[in-house]
Amino acid sequence: ICLKSYVKDGDAKNDPYISPCKILDEDLELFPPVRFLLAGRCPLRDESYKFALRLKQNLNTLRKLEKDVKIMEYRPLPHAFLNLDGAFTPKDYKKPTKQAQEWITEMADKAFQEELNLLRIKRIYADIQ
């Protein structure tokens, strides 16, 4: 019943929107850096590891994708733990929350620097013309 909410027609087991492991290599090559913040008690934990490995190398074709992937797992926590304010002691979700903040900051800084470098290149090119 739940799958029909996401996939109206076709084979849900092979739909890349349901299972990211089914995404084509050509589409994976377009992915930005990816960060996985996993709960050890999450039913999707193993699939997340499989997907992270696939972003590094497609095990079916042995073709290296070598995407920028980082994984951090917090074993005692359940699925969707970041949404469970107050359900755990602060020490249980303090580390993963801090990790998420660090990754977001790191990726935003990198994107900003890349954009800044692009603007500098455009300015240099305009000056040459």
Mean pLDDT: 83
Order of helices and strands: HHEHEEEH
The quaternary state of the protein chains shown equals single chain
The description of the largest β-sheet is: 2 strands, parallel
Secondary structural class? alpha+beta
Termini distance?
61 Å
What Rg, in angstroms, do the CA atoms define? 19 Å
Outline? extended
- Helical content stands at 40-55%
Low-confidence segments, ≥5 residues, pLDDT <50?
Answer: none
Strand order of the largest sheet: 1-4
Number of helices: 4
Q: Tell me the fraction of residues in β-strands, as a range.
A: 15-25%
Number of strands: 4
Task: Describe the protein.
With 129 residues, the chain is of the alpha+beta class. The chain is built from 4 helices and 4 strands. The protein has helices spanning 2-6, 25-28, 45-56, 90-128, and strands at residues 34-41, 57-58, 63-64, 69-78. The protein has a two-stranded parallel ribbon.
What brief labels describe this structure?
129 residues, alpha+beta, two-stranded parallel sheet, two-stranded antiparallel sheet, 4 helices, extended
